[in-house]
Design a protein that fits this description.
This protein is an alpha/beta fold and 183 residues long. It has helices spanning 25-37, 50-63, 75-84, 99-107, 124-128, 142-154; strands spanning 11-16, 42-46, 68-72, 88-98, 111-116, 131-134, 168-170, 179-181. Strand 2 (42-46), helix 2 (50-63) and strand 3 (68-72) form a beta-alpha-beta unit. The longest helix has 14 residues, at 50-63. Bound molecules: S-adenosylmethionine (SAM).
Length: 183
């Protein structure tokens, strides 16, 4: 682990809301991969194929964790419980406030649930969230929005995160692929 490197002050989870059956398998999986690689400690899914959860669990098993993967049965209940246990909810949407204007206020909270949608999210979500945050006001992608939000939130420090219980690890090199087997 890098000296002085710590993401522990915050506990960031991601909720992926909305998923088109079959068609979104890859992008929903990528939401989880980005959440893990960019400093979140877990992802919640609502209405996804088991395949999405299974492939993320395989990644955690091979590349390390801790990283929590869970399917929930009610997103409203989940958000309410998160808020009741002193967490805040940040919804990423092109219609929200510019990210840089709200980051410091968001950082003041320890537990943060970042919500990303697929198509149109239910309108009541806007009323249940503490922040609606835009990564620019142009339409793009939940994967891009999540990556940019987390990278700005952790100021790049998340890229140095060491994962525990990994079976393999990359040795960065200027050419080719170097991997070490850890156990
Ligand atoms: N009209 C949607 C919206 O509210 O942002 C765009 C749908 S987009 C295909 C799917 C998801 O990507 C959205 O629910 C949102 O979480 C995220 N997203 C897309 N563009 C974004 C932006 N500029 N800022 C923040 N999030 C964005």
């Amino acid at each position: 682990m890098q000296r002085g490197f710590s993401l522990e002050r915050h506990e960031v989870f991601v909720l992926r809301l909305g998923h088109r059956y079959i068609r979104d398998i890859r992008i929903s999986t990528h939401v989880g991969l980005v959440a893990r690689a960019f400093g979140a400690v877990g992802v919640y899914y609502y209405n996804v194929e088991k395949q999405v959860l299974d492939s993320l669990k395989k990644v955690v098993d091979r590349w390390g964790g801790p990283f929590h993967v869970e399917e929930i049965t009610s997103w409203k209940k989940m958000i309410q419980e998160w808020k009741d246990s002193s967490g805040i909810v940040v919804h990423l949407t092109m219609y929200g406030e510019p990210v840089d204007t709200v980051l410091n206020r968001i950082r003041a909270s320890k537990r943060i649930l970042v919500v990303v949608g697929a198509e149109k999210v239910p309108s009541e979500l806007y009323r249940m969230t503490d922040y609606n945050v835009a990564i620019g006001s142009q339409p793009h992608s939940e994967v891009a929005a999540l990556a940019v939000f987390l990278d700005r939130f952790f100021e790049g420090r998340e890229l140095g995160r060491e994962f525990q219980n990994a079976k393999i690890k990359v040795v960065p090199s200027s050419r080719g692929k170097r991997l070490v087997t850890l156990k």
